[in-house]
Amino acid sequence: MQRLCILKAEHDTGAAFLSSQAVLKDMRRSFLLSAALVKQDRNTRVHKAHGIAKGNHRMNKREDYFSQYCHKNRRKKKIIRVVKRITVTALAVCMACSTGFLLHKLPLDHVFAAPEKEIAGEESTVILNGFQLSTLSLDDIFGEAEAGEPAPAQIEVKKNGVPVIFLDAGHGGADAGCVSGDVQEKTINLAIAKKVQTKLEEMGYSVIMARERDTYITKENRVKLANALQADIYVSIHQNDSEVATVKGMEVWYAGEDTMRDNKRLALLIGQQTAKSLGIEQRELRGDADFHVTGSTKMPSCLIETGFLSNKEERELLLTEEYQEQIAAGIVQGIVYYFHPKTMYLTFDDGPTEENTARVLDILKERGIKATFFLVGENVRKHPEMAKRIVAEGHTIGIHCDNHDYENVYRSVDSFIEDFETAYQTIYEVTGVEAKLFRFPGGSVNHYNKKINDAIIQEMTERGYIYFDWNASLDDAVGSREPEELVASGVQTTLGREKVVMLAHDVVYNTGICLEDLLDALPEYAMKPLSEEVEPIRFK
Predict the structure, then answer these.
(1) Interior CA angle at 112 toward 111 and 118, to 5°?
(2) How many angstroms from the chain centroid is the CA of residue 327?
(3) Which pairs from 114-119 meet CB under 8 Å and 24+ separation?
(4) Tens digit of pLDDT for each residue in 377-430?
(5) Model confidence over 217-239: pLDDT tens digits?
(6) For the stretch 328-366, what's the b/e string if a residue is b when 16 or more beta carbons lie within 10 angstroms of its beta carbon?
(7) Of 116, 121, 284, whose CA–CA distance to 210 is shortest?
């Protein structure tokens, strides 16, 4: 759908050039006329001066003065008109040429995608539950009527708790979309959309198609229908185009400025899962979508461009059933994860600290995420206000230890209990929380506690405490690692599990720096805090 308007720009540039040739000819004629008038006016003044020198007595008459004044004034006005005409013409030529030149030189990534065509009088009639889309009114949708009039029949989509997905196969009918040879975008869009529809309906989802055949439906009516029927999400399927034949790949667009809808997560999931299904790298996630279908819908929406028709290799793939099936499978999986995400418990050890913990809390608050913080007693005493903030913002508090000295903590069962109780008392006095969750320093099985860990576990369990290990980690406590490495580690160690307890450390600077990227890289997970009801993840 993103038809980068370069080819049109080249056509406009050529047209502007041909037009400028005609304008230049007109300018040449105007300049010649102006020169002739100026020369004629000069000759007139010379003849007049010559006549005065000869003492022509008729020039002294009042009527001759008036006649000459009028004649001179008319010539002056004529010259001014010619000069204005030349100036305006010159400006028009400059604007036409510069516009064509700039469009021709504009980088690909700075050219806006062309909107869908507006084809007056060409919209096809679509019947939905007995109603024509072209005549659909809000009264038809909501069954409303003025007093004294019978209410019209109401269009209904029976949800019964089942998500409703609005699928928009871009373009259609007289609007072919991108065209490469005899391959039209509208045909590929519809083929993929139908495959997505089939897979979703087989899973029990309710699907509304913007079009089910080669028909032209205005973008306004597509959005109107989706909004009226209160679809849960809106996914628009398109293809891309570029003047550079080697450009290929997939892009997903969403309205990033609208934070009231969950557009970004939907776009992340559609892009992530489609790229995974195809075994390709996603080109870019675009949060600057300026399309009617992404900006005017009331539900979360995104637009996916699954490939470039201008790329011969990708175009041939897009025409195959197998590739279309892979695209559809990716889109469907993204939709499934949107409504039925996996679960991740994001946990932070060793805090709190003033700067780093604050950064983590700011990000979690902005995204509405609750996490779990396993605190160190001595750090709570250093930063009591930060510990209070963790509790005030609804996060779960657990106990890590009082002092992160492994040799002292694991010297014996009694020394572990003594350290734990000191940390427990500090946290209770500062936050008022009677923590029941804890995490062993270094995990429940490590080099320092291997001889006494079973005894510690037995003692702590009898006291009513629950310990949690982890099954994924940023590895942020190991050496000095770049934010990109931490994100990669976090994503890779999840191993696609349905339930993940992620280990991170809020005392590490780069953990706070990479947290937003980490969350964006894991859109298939719903982030939740740990609780006593959660079945623990433990080392074996």
Answers:
(1) 135
(2) 19
(3) 114/2, 114/3, 114/4, 114/5, 114/8, 115/219, 115/291, 115/292, 116/1, 116/170, 116/171, 116/175, 116/177, 116/219, 116/292, 117/171, 117/174, 117/175, 118/218, 119/173, 119/174, 119/175, 119/216
(4) 999 999 999 999 999 999 999 999 999 899 999 999 999 999 999 999 999 999
(5) 999 989 989 998 889 999 999 99
(6) bbbbbbbbbbbeebeebbbbbbbbbbeebbbbbbebbee
(7) 116
Among 125, 167, 478, 157, residue whose Cα is nearest residue 293: 167
Q: How confident is the model at residue 32 (pLDDT cuts 50, 70, 90)?
A: very low
Structure tokens at 289: 């979508």
pLDDT band at 267, cuts 50/70/90?
very high
Q: How far apart are CA 421 and CA 402, in angstroms?
A: 8
Residue with tokens 């000869």: 54
pLDDT in tens, 137-176: 555 555 555 556 665 555 555 556 789 999 999 999 999 9
Asked if 388 and 428 count as a contact pair (C-beta separation under 8 A), the reply is no
| pLDDT at position 448 | 95
- Do the strands 183-184 and 179-180 form a parallel or antiparallel pair, or are they unpaired? antiparallel
List the beta strands (DSSP E) in 327-481.
342-349, 372-376, 396-401, 437-438, 466-467, 472-473
Q: Reading across the β-sheet that carries 233-240, which strands appear in turn?
A: 206-209, 164-169, 233-240, 301-308, 250-253, 282-286
Contact 191, 167 (CB under 8 A): no
Distance CA 45, CA 56 (A): 14
pLDDT score at 109: 40
130 three-state secondary structure: coil
Residue type present at position 221: N
Which residues lie across from 183 on neighbouring strands? 180
CA dihedral angle for residue 446, residue 450, residue 452, residue 454, rounded to 10 degrees: 90
Does pLDDT of 317 surpass 60? Answer: yes
Cis status of the peptide bond prior to 352, with omega within 30 of 0: yes
Q: What is the pLDDT of residue 141?
A: 52
Indicate the range of 5-14, 60-69, 129-138, 359-368 predicted with least confidence: 5-14
